[in-house]
Structure formats: C-alpha cells, structure tokens
Amino acid sequence: MTTSPSGSASASSPGSPPAPPRGRREQLGQIFRFALVGGVNTGTFFALYLLLHPWMPYFAAYTLAFVLSMIGSFFMNTYFTYRTRPTWKKFLLFPLTNVTNYVIQSVGLYALVTWAGMDTRIAPLVAAVVAIPFTFLLSRKILIPGTGAGAAAQTGAEPERSSSTV
Fold first, then answer.
1. CB contact at 8 A, 29 and 23
2. Between residues 147 and 134, the one the model is more confident about
3. How confident is the model at residue 118, as a pLDDT?
4. What are phi and psi for residue 165, nearest 5 degrees?
5. Is the pLDDT of residue 10 over 70?
6. What angle do CA 107, 78, 39 make, to 5 degrees?
7. Residue 16 in 3-state DSSP?
8. What does residue 12 show for φ and ψ, rounded to 5 degrees?
9. Of 139, 156, 11, which is closest to residue 75 (Cα–Cα)?
10. Residue 164, C-beta contacts closer than 8 angstroms, at least 6 positions apart
11. Closest to 95 measured CA to CA, from 132, 78, 70, 72
C-alpha cells in the first residue's frame, strides 16, 4: 500500500514500481507519435522541396513545400498523434501554430545558407530540427483543448464541442 498526498491508501503490486500516471503515459505516447509523424512530414516536405527546387528559387520552393506538408501534418497529427477529430476551427488555427515553426526555420535557413554557406538542399533539414520542440508544444495546445499552462494534471482530452469536421 502507498499513500497519496491526500492521505488515502492505494494498492500496488509488491516489488513492482508504480505505474506512471495515465496523463504522463498519454503525453509520452503523444511525443512518440509526434516524432513519427514529424519524420514522415519532414520526408514529405524534403521530397516536395527537392521536386520544386529546380523549377523555382530555393526560398519559394521551401515555402510551397512547407505549406503543402503543413496540411498533411494537420491530418496526421489530429488522427494519429493526438487522436482527436479534425474540425474547421482546428484546421484554421493550426497554421497559426506553425507560424513560429516557419519563422524559426526561415531564419535558420537564411542564416545557414547566407552566413554558413550551407548547401540549399541540406539547410532546410538542419533548420527543421531546431524547430521541433516548439512545433510539438504549439500543435498540442491547438489540437487538444485544455493543454495549456496549468493543464498538465489533466488525464483525458476535453470532449469536442463542435460537430463541424474537416
């Protein structure tokens, strides 16, 4: 028996460590799924970028590939990462979460190409790695209501209020 902070007793198996709280386990699952989606999304972005790069300036190819992969990322993150329904509201807010990602990646891309002399075919990947933690936190906040500051103790997703889906 263990005692909770409130003083109530709870049972646990002898000799086994207590299971992590459900909320923590779900959050770790989201991080893992986010990483998988991020890998797929990064591959999609990079393939699109390389396809577009010969036909337009590198920054235009980067921007178009970013927008197209962001749309795919929205659907992969709603269905797979956060296991929530896509709605028009979330779809319209999701790009706002990626503005920070875009700014970080754009500044990084420019700096890597202009100041560091990095190849324009590789620099977007390096800039993308730097933006990953910011993208996770912002997309989670938009796609799962109630996951902002102070909501870490929440164990389940808030029920959907809108019936409008994408």
1. no
2. 134
3. 95
4. -115, 160
5. no
6. 50
7. coil
8. -145, 155
9. 139
10. 87, 88, 89
11. 70
pLDDT greater than 80 at residue 123: yes
Please give the angle made by the CA atoms of 52, 54 and 55, to the nearest 5 degrees.
65
> What's the pLDDT tens digit per position in 44-87?
999 999 999 999 999 999 999 989 998 999 999 999 999 999 99
Higher-pLDDT residue of 154, 58: 58
pLDDT at residue 12, as a whole number:
44
Helix or strand or coil: residue 88?
helix
Phi, psi of 10, rounded to the nearest 5 degrees: -135, 150
Residues 29 and 76: beta-carbon distance below 8 Å: no
Tokens of 15: 């000799």
Q: What is the 3-state secondary structure (H, E, C) of 108-160?
A: HHHHHHHCCCCCCCCHHHHHHHHHHHHHHHHHHHHHCCCCCCCCCCCCCCCCC
DSSP, res 83: -
- The two three-digit tokens of residue 1, written as one number: 């028996």
